[in-house]
Amino acid sequence: MNIFLFQLAGNFRKEFIEWKSYGFNALSSLIMWIIIFPLMMLIIQNVSNRNNSAFGSEELVASLLGFLAWRLGLEIILEMPNSIEVEARTGTLENVMLTSTSSILNLLVIRAMSRSVFALIEVIIIGIVMTIAFDISLLMSPQIVIIGLIMVVGLWGIGFTAVGLTIVYKSGILTVTRLFI
């Protein structure tokens, strides 16, 4: 268990260093996602006004929650096979697998956990900005947290499937994955 926690802390440190090193990229990505949601809502409100449909604050909250879940899912599903593909291409995957005291499954879980935490931080920042911009409130209940955890575990399952395909085919799986997402 100590090795698992040590590796988890090391992976969190690695994610933070990458986040800090590519700060401009991370910031521009957040700004892009913050701009995309209002544009989508503007289009949806125009379409609903043309069809004489109501699009109030309840629909806006539901759309925001769906958008944030989609953003989190996209980040988790695409990042897991991407990290394996990059390591396989650069030749460090074999080194990690041979020198690690943990199994490949433990390493994948640790990477999924650390990437999910950083993706969740990004999603929370986007959510806070959107709730302030649209003047809506998102009430967090225990049921929403449980549903969110179940969703993340399901996304990990899809990510692990993509990782398996990446290990088998070594390249090109990201292109296939992006076609479906």
Features of the shown structure:
181 residues; mainly alpha; 87% helix; elongated
Q: Give the helix/strand class.
A: mainly alpha
Q: What's the number of helices?
A: 7
**Oligomeric state as shown:** single chain
Mean pLDDT: 81
- Could you name the ranges where pLDDT drops below 50 across 5 or more consecutive residues? none
The main β sheet shows up as: none
Which overall shape is indicated by the principal axes computed on the Cα atoms? Answer: elongated
- Indicate the percent of residues in helices: over 70%
Gyration radius over CA:
19 Å
- What are the secondary-structure elements, in order, as H or E? HHHHHHH
E-strand count:
0
Q: Report the portion of residues in β strands.
A: under 5%
Give the CA-CA distance, first to last residue: 35 Å
